Amino acid sequence: MKMKRYYNALSTAVLLTLFACASIGTPDGGPYDEEPPVLLEAVPELNSTNVKSKKFVLNFDENIKLENAFEKVVVSPPQVEMPSIKYSGKKVTVELFDTLRPNTTYSIDFSDAIVDNNEGNPYENFAYVFSTGENVDTLAVSGTVLNAQDLEPVKGIVVGLHSCLDDSAFTTKPFERVSRTDSRGRFTIKGIAPGKYRVYALGDANQNNFFDQKSEKIAFQEMIIEPFATPAVRPDTIWRDSVTIDTIRMVDYIRFQPDDIALRLFNEEMFMQQLVKYPRQEHNRIVMFFAAPNKEMPVIKGYGFDASDAYVLEPSLNMDTLTLWFKDSLVYRNDTLPLTVTYRVPDSIGNMIDRTDTLYVSSRKRWADVMRIERERFEKDEKDFHKKARKKPGYDENNPPQYIPPVKVLPVRFSGTGTMDVNGICRFRFDEPLLSVDTALIHLSVKSDTLWLPVPYVFRQSENSIRSYDVYAEWKPGETYLLQTDSAAFKGLYGGVSKLFKQEMRFRSLDECAVLYLNIGGVGSNAIVQLLSGDEKVVQETRTENGRCAFYFLRPGKYYLRLILDENNNGKWDTGDYAKGLQPEKVFYYNHSLELRAMFEYSQDDWNINAPLNEQKPLEITKQKPDKERRKMNRNADRKFK
């Protein structure tokens, strides 16, 4: 019995052990592989000279793969025919198809595209370099490409060099040496021979390595660069673990310069004008959409009617959209309206000429169908009216009451809310142009104890819309106002009449607001300063006066600052033009956020607009975030074995 119990206990222990081993799940497989692949052999060897072969093989110590090779791997000089780049097991094979140029240094820059197959550890900053001549050129230049309007790093942009210093080289010849920007907008061009160069950036839509399409984004510098190298020393940090520094040692290296090139990328203003479409969803309205803003108002003429007085014209801010609100039903009842539209377009050499389009604008619905629907609606409403009237006492079948259609209601939309900023906008907006406004029926009053006292105001059409109207008054912080319009204060173009409207508004007191004063060195009076929210929307903007400006009545919160050097003083940012040698207007950011609290006045005097452009925009509002860096150090410290 004892032996039987012993064997039973032993069997149970073995089974439990086996079960425990089987239930662990996927085994951890030991510590993470933290080491990148090691290049064992290159055929031909790295930095070989007098190379004739166009096929190159790289052998590594472990299985590897290529990540985003089309995006990351750059061959310089650029190739007309795309090279073949393949990997298999521990080997990468590159084959060039273009004829090799004599006495030329070639670089195949892999960036961090080569990674090990298991953990994805990258073989970073690797470039395979060889020469078809006696010498290998070793100079390099680097820098950053930023979007000119908002200093966003631009990923995947081609950056190239020309030793031909003529302006025409960028528009007629492929780059001699190229690179491509990473997720931080950074680039490095390698294998450069001594000499003088111009540097450009290009959103190369057709991949021909020169600027030949107006739609391509570009950047250029007036400055000529001359690459050079100098001995330098930099710190090298050795980490004991993920948070503890073991040693910092100084390491000698060769510094290639210039390494701080800043290129501001922009789209030239495109003005290939045409009338794109002109829908007529309703009989009384035509909307004309143009491909680009109009610098002059188009001229519209009608056939069979006087177009000059037939409609109310509503242009958009840039006149790229025109809405025609027809006034006379005798005109707009026609299912097809013949019109001519004359507008300015550039000819083949850029001179502005008139173009006239003849249009036959048909309505989406036939007027007969519109009238039938209106008649059916009227008859139904009349029938319902008499049906209800018969149920009322005193109804006389021989003398029934007459049905009078209700007055068409004109909707009133108002931007004001229960709590307002002193510099907020009090704006009415309507669905159609107004035929009339009776300001005697508009009342503004301020609350004083339990009384409402009348307040003077100004009511006028907004600058940018014929269907918007603003109310201006001397709004006082902390006060409560009542804006009221009586019935029929507004009458629409098509018979609509407004109803009674009331809106109570309390304006924030000074105790609820902050004030910000700025003193910006190196800026005169031609700068626009914008206060931005966390999503980079403009909260307020103002112009500087001798480098100074201020923002008042600010809600507590986090803000950011952007500055535009408005060189032509037109109140907005303007793009560049390569043919004219015109750079886009410069934009700068304050490199920190501002935490503003109520009842505080803040003064900022430390805004250095001359700081490197790639260090200015705060990361928290930068939309193009850097790719996540692969951690290769001490990941095993976080590994737990079960």
Q: How big a fraction of the residues is strand?
A: 35-45%
Shape: elongated
Q: Would you identify the CATH architecture of the largest domain? A: Sandwich
The average pLDDT score comes to 89
CATH topology of the largest domain: Immunoglobulin-like
Helix count, DSSP H or I runs of 4 or more residues = 5
The level 1 CATH classification of the largest domain is Mainly Beta
Query: Within the largest sheet, what's the order of strands?
Result: 27-36-34-30-31
What is the number of domains? 5
Radius of gyration: 36 Å
Major β-sheet annotation: 5 strands, mixed
Counting DSSP E segments of at least 2 residues, the number of strands comes to: 44
Report what the structure shows.
The protein has 642 residues and is mostly beta strands. The protein folds into 5 domains: 192 residues, Immunoglobulin-like (Sandwich); 91 residues, Sandwich (Immunoglobulin-like), CATH 2.60.40; 30 residues; 96 residues, Immunoglobulin-like (Sandwich); 100 residues, Immunoglobulins (Immunoglobulin-like, Sandwich). Helices cover 9% and strands 38% of the residues. The protein contains 5 helices and 44 strands. The strands form 13 sheets. The protein has a 5-stranded mixed β-sheet with strand order 27-36-34-30-31, with no helix packed on it. The two termini are 37 Å apart.
